[in-house]
Design brief:
Elements: H1 3-11, H2 22-35, E1 44-45, H3 48-55, H4 59-71, E2 75-78, E3 81-84, H5 136-149, H6 164-178, E4 187-190, H7 193-204, E5 210-215, H8 219-227, E6 231-238, E7 241-242, H9 246-251, E8 256-259, H10 273-286, E9 289-293, E10 318-323, E11 335-338, H11 341-354, H12 360-372, H13 374-401, E12 407-408, E13 415-419, H14 426-435, E14 441-442, E15 455-459, H15 465-479
Parallel strand pairs: 5-6, 5-8, 8-9, 9-10
Antiparallel strand pairs: 1-3, 2-3, 4-11, 6-7, 10-11, 12-13, 13-15, 14-15
Length: about 475
């Protein structure tokens, strides 16, 4: 760089009323010029006194910039002054990396995101509870009480396995509400069910091990297994739930089985008691671990809630997984897994390395929420609301498509599945519905194999009555080509 160019670069006016201070502006100007090669290695910079006079700033400002540049290794100083260090240059802004230059893990190709850029509050979206009906006042009261009595203690790291008060309250709740048999020591608090699934794969499988998933089934379980380099084997669902055949155990025995027995996602099938017992007996014989995801089974609309498979026999090969994303709100990011007693001791050292015990105020508040009865009262209120919304959705579908409309599920949960003819493209239909402000799921997206049933997963948890009616009307128009 010539002396004239150097002079222009350094002496360009600084903004006196800008968001950055004069010192910050000068530092960033020189730093960026070095990184982009405008100031080459070995270039001598003017003396701090002279540059301060030329820029009409305090000499202390320039000295501070020089000191920071030296601390970060951009400048070298000696008796003759300051010069630019030797270092690699950044690529020019007009020379970005191409995709062929970026190396990613081979796993990335298997993790095809189903995420779409639309609001979670769009109507008919499955998996979202009624956010407007969450009891914010009671939740705020619980948080305030926690922070009032022990604010400083909760600012540090907590027990990696979770707050003791929450694990104790949760063990009591799960025993009464879900028939889960466990002690607080068996419970591990996680950041949602997805982290629990990822931990199960990381701690209990090796690359190349076989993992069974339901067909159709939850994409998050498949993602966790793919991240662990497992070999995913889909197992068909029938009217009694997961239906492995004897040859499946002989020819492709799994290390892990993921299942949603109390409310299969997305079809809504309930696994029968004989099927559950047979699955656990075979798992014990094959030294297989079953991951039981108790997906939104708290919302059952006829009779008592179906008890968890985990509590049917002891000892059990079942790891019970749940979260509060559907029963409370998704942003809470609190879930849990219940380990079988025989896994607690061997897994504890690894869990202490992998987890850090965060969200302590929220965990303590949730413990209060459970013990006060606010959680149970909220569930009861939501059951009534979701029962009404499901009835509205059924009536709208039957009024529009006839009494024989092919629906799956409905005994519990927050969605119904509308089956479509094989010549319908549910992915394309969902895209068109999104453009109209509705965001159901495409049933075919839950399949792993080539044989895929077409259908729509219609969520009603966070969808009002008027939105349900309007959404079904829009669906009818699209199906009729209007």
């Amino acid at each position: 760089m010539s002396d004239i160019e150097l002079h222009r670069l350094l002496l360009a006016p600084l903004e006196t009323n800008g968001e950055l201070t004069l010192q910050q502006q000068l530092f960033q100007r020189i730093r960026q010029a070095i990184l982009t090669g405008k100031l080459a290695a070995g270039t001598r910079l003017p003396a701090t006194r002279q540059l301060a006079l030329d820029l009409a700033v305090s000499r202390n400002t320039v000295i501070a910039v020089w000191a920071q540049l030296q601390a970060e290794g951009f400048l070298l100083s000696d008796r003759q002054g300051s010069r630019i260090s030797n270092m690699a240059q950044l690529p020019q802004e007009n020379q970005p990396h191409t995709s062929s230059e970026i190396t990613l893990s081979p796993r990335i190709a298997q993790l095809r995101s189903s995420h779409r850029s639309f609001s979670q509050e769009m109507a008919l979206r499955p998996g979202v509870p009624s956010l407007a009906h969450f009891p914010l006042a009671q939740w705020r009261r619980a948080l305030n009480r926690v922070m009032l009595h022990q604010p400083q203690q909760l600012l540090g790291y907590g027990d990696p396995l979770g707050e003791c008060t929450l694990r104790e309250a949760l063990a009591q709740h799960l025993a009464l509400a879900r028939g889960v048999r466990c002690t607080p020591e068996q419970i591990v608090i996680t950041e949602g069910a997805q982290q629990a699934l990822t931990l199960c794969v990381a701690l209990l499988s090796s690359p190349g091990d076989i993992g069974w998933v339901e067909e159709p089934g939850y994409r998050g379980a498949k993602a966790a297994m793919r991240l662990g380099d497992m070999r995913i084997e889909p197992v068909a669902i029938d009217a009694q739930g997961l239906a492995p055949q004897p040859q499946d155990w002989q020819q492709r025995a799994p290390r892990l089985i993921y299942t949603t027995p109390t409310h299969q996602y997305p079809t809504g099938v309930i696994m029968s008691a004989p099927r559950r017992l047979a699955l656990m007996a075979a798992a014990r014989q094959q030294q297989t671990w079953i991951i039981e995801d108790d997906y939104d089974s708290d919302f059952r609309y006829s009779g008592e809630p179906i008890a968890a498979m985990q509590g049917m026999t002891q000892p059990t090969p079942v790891i019970y997984v749940g979260s509060f994303s559907k029963t409370l709100f998704p942003a809470l990011r609190l879930g849990f897994m219940v380990l079988p007693p025989q896994l607690v001791t061997p897994l504890r050292p690894a869990l202490h390395e992998l987890l850090r015990g965060g969200n302590r105020p929220e965990q303590q508040a949730l413990a209060l929420f459970l013990r006060s009865g606010d959680f149970s009262r909220h569930l009861s209120k939501m059951r009534r609301l979701y029962r009404q919304r499901q009835a509205t959705l059924r009536q709208a579908l039957q009024h529009t498509f006839g009494d024989q409309v092919p629906l799956l599920g409905g005994e519990c949960g927050m969605h119904l599945v509308l089956s479509l003819e094989a010549d319908q493209n549910d992915m394309r239909l969902v895209d068109r519905l999104i453009q109209s402000g509705y965001a159901p799921g495409a049933l075919s997206g839950f399949y792993s194999g080539e044989q895929k049933q077409q259908g729509l997963v219609l969520g009603y948890g966070n969808t009002s009555t008027s939105q349900i009616t309007a959404g079904v009307a829009q669906l009818a128009r699209l199906l009729r080509g209007n």
